[in-house]
TrEMBL record:
UniProt entry keywords in alphabetical sequence: ATP-binding, Nucleotide-binding, Transport
Record-linked SMART domains: AAA
Keyword ATP-binding: yes
Descriptive protein name: ABC transporter ATP-binding protein
Domain of life: Bacteria
Gene source species: Shewanella gaetbuli
Amino acid sequence: MNLIECTQLSKNYSGKNVLNQVNISLKAGAPIALVGPNGAGKTTLFSIICGYISASSGSVKILGESPNSAKLRGRLSALPQDAQLDPDITIISQLMLFAQLQGLSKAAAKHEAMRVLELVDLAQVVHEKPKSLSHGMGKRVSIAQALIGTPDVVLLDEPTAGLDPANAKKVREIVRQQSASSTFIISSHNLDELEKLCDQVIYLENGSLKQSLSIQSKQNVEYLTLVMTETDMQALTNEVSSFEGVINVTTSTDKQMIIEYSHQHGFQLETQLLTLFAQHQWQYKSILKGRTLEDTLFS
């Protein structure tokens, strides 16, 4: 059974297609990225999955059930970008309420509230009110609320937007740690953040599904992305293009090179590159296995 199955899913507002016959099949596992420009239909898709709004046509199944099915209670969770807890009610009281709404007893709800706060490393704020927290801490408490009951599916909308690097890193760690028990679907414009977390990417544009792919290719062709410093890029391109197994080399003005090569030559290629750098005293900034998410989507 698929985690989420969308079939010919469409949504119209006043004759305008916001989603246009979208077909998506998602399986449980590693975090999944949902990307696209503003107005692409990402929020609408999330809203239909959650049962906030109905589709105009087509169908969607979550864990084999229709949105708003009672069987999904506690199994599907969503955190909108600007969702906030009540600023004047203690965190423990609010988290206990959400847990009790899932059917937990008062004692079990308190235990669950403490559990999710510990997951986000904020057990110390249990008796605080949200208005006393920093933006980053508030976001982590909201994520804790989304984790109540260990849902099978967690939808996160821009979870690191506006966060300082330390809190953004903490959010990534939370997602990684909880991915063993929940599948996260993350909508964001921050491609750098997404490629640190996700492998599968769903790309929407103008309400249509444009791409559904893996950042890291599982086919016979693989990629290395080099970022160089002070280097003769033309000379480097000529040298690398002559290596056995190299299919194509592309460069950009910011000293970045993408090498497309046959997967059976991977170890040999990496060794040749390091030898070449030493011979010419060329300095590299980074070597990335695969392509960046930006290059994968837009090249």
